Amino acid sequence: MVPIFSWKRTVPRTMVNRFSVLVSACEILVEGLAIFVALPRVYPEASRSYWLNVLLGLFLFANTLGNFIMTIGVDSSSGSVHLPSILKPGWNYCHRCQKNSPPRSYHCNECGLCVLKRDHHCVFMGCCIGYANQRYYLMCIMHICILTIYANYLNMDLAVKCISENFNLLTLIASFTPVLAWIYGVTQPVSFFIAFQSITCLYCFLIFTVLFLYHLHIVLRGQTTHEFRRLDDRSYDLGWMQNIRDVLGTRWYLVWISPLITSPLPGDGVHFKSESLCLEEVKDL
């Protein structure tokens, strides 16, 4: 299965999800801007180190933004596949979509449709994470973790210098509430941007690192969030290597390079191999 992308899907259905996407996109742009604002200060001359860091910054920014767009724009619904009219064993009937729903698929009230192998509805991206777009979601949050810590690394010296020159109670408050500090004239525009970027990078790094480790854990176990939290069901655990292929595709070792690299998924999002089925195949042999 090759995921289907559409620019129309990048605009979420509800205003709440649209606002979430807008905030997340602005945050990614801020982190990318912070890198290219800091680089001339860290490397005043256009040396080899400067250009290497420019390439690294572009790589992280392009991957974060690209995977973000792909996560939202890829069709993860059951409407992308042909579903039988007869209710099969293990399937459910969705009264809202008025269609048969395959195993591991659930209806999302926010998106208004059934999602193949639904994992969860992401509040940051305003869409559901399912069979077709889970690869892009994982790569996006992974690159966000790296991008935020890299941006903080570049701005660390400047942030420490700005704080140490004027360290007091107001400076400490400004570091954690940069917007209020700027509104009331406690910080200058440059100091505001540094403080705002540093604290948002720190927040994003902590949040998305926890998210990435959590989702990596359940992917290695061959589970979705629903199966892990409510059922603790490991029926679809085929070993960590096959579990990774099922999510990242047959070219799983290349997906970290770019979201544009094709990595076909081994299944169709409707039929899944289970541990019991594999044991039966071994017995038949």
Automatic annotation (TrEMBL):
The keyword Membrane applies. Keywords: Acyltransferase, Membrane, Transferase, Transmembrane, Transmembrane helix. Residues 91-229 form the Palmitoyltransferase DHHC domain. The chain crosses the membrane at residues 20-39, 51-74, 136-154, 166-184, 190-214. GO terms for cellular component: membrane. GO terms for molecular function: protein-cysteine S-palmitoyltransferase activity. It comes from the Eukaryota. This is Palmitoyltransferase. It comes from Patiria miniata.
